[in-house]
Amino acid sequence: MIMQKRLSDIPVSVLDLATITQGQTPADAFKRSLELAQEAEGLGFLRYWFAEHHNMESVASAATSVLIGYVAGGTKIIRVGAGGIMLPNHAPLVIAEQFGTLEALYPHRIDLGLGRAPGTDGLTAMALRRNLQSADNFPSDVMELITYLGPRDEAARVRAIPGEGSDVPVWLLGSSTYSAQLAAHLGLPFAFAAHFAPTYLEEALKLCKQNFQPSQYLPQPYAMACINVTAAGTDEEARHLATSFYQVFLGLIRNNRKPLQPPVDEALLDWNEAERLTLQQMMKYSFIGSVDTVQKSLQSFLDNTNVNEIMIASHIYDLEAKKKSYRLIAPLFNRQTNR
């Protein structure tokens, strides 16, 4: 019999894209991310992750490991990590050295989430990878990377220094069932990107749990879902703030990407019916409203998925409104106050 979880039983974490807002620079975005991470730490969030994306005007987290170091250096106890590094864009040894360095600087606070998508468009992927077939090597690249981060082996001809012996926790990330099955096979924690690709969430979680093989990393499956959350004092205020979020997704649909825009009257968004339906599908796991509204919908989500952890993404233009959203959400969960 599955024990039903309450939100207060599980931790909550944050996914940040180092969002560039209208009129601001990447430098402004980095300062904003640090301020938000400090807020999240004080509120008891467990993790603060950055995602690798490229060639996007609203996202400044392309050099993910550099940004992780900046934020880890400005915080004290919150775990800081990648959600994730798009491994086919990199040599596994390079990532092992980068995250080995981060772990040496900030012990027991670094997470390494790995994805197999490019995190960008096809042309930019070619500029990054030179060879798009590299995604086919994802399972072997993951194992190579884990080996570099594993026990010190002086006989190895190639070693990650720093990196070896660091045992940085490795997660597999996905928006389909592929990485869920690989995570189950390798006995690694799994995170699903339901904040932009909700279609296969339930199937992926089911496969991860049913096929899980205990490992030296995990004795039993551990799954996290990333979803969109915008909380405010009232449902109406939250819906208004969420129009910035709608504009981001409309920009993706129309291939007209811009820095994050201020909220607008929803009637001014001028989307057609096809765009509205696409937006609704992409936003299936988006929770917008007052704290009471969000709490009820989040509890229903937890009832349906039984995940071990929830990570939130929040495309909120105003910094103070975003902090307020964090403050409203945090008390609903098991906050990390005694680490």
From TrEMBL:
MF terms (GO), sorted A to Z: oxidoreductase activity, acting on paired donors, with incorporation or reduction of molecular oxygen
Region forming the signal peptide: none
A cellular component term, taken from the record's GO annotations: cytosol
Domain Luciferase-like as annotated: residue spans: 14-299
Coiled coil: none
Domain of life (superkingdom): Bacteria
NCBIfam families, sorted: oxido_grp_1
Family under the similarity heading: To bacterial alkanal monooxygenase alpha and beta chains.
PANTHER family: LUCIFERASE-LIKE MONOOXYGENASE
Name of the protein described by the UniProt record: Luciferase-like monooxygenase
Lineage, highest ranks first: Bacteria, Pseudomonadati, Bacteroidota, Chitinophagia, Chitinophagales
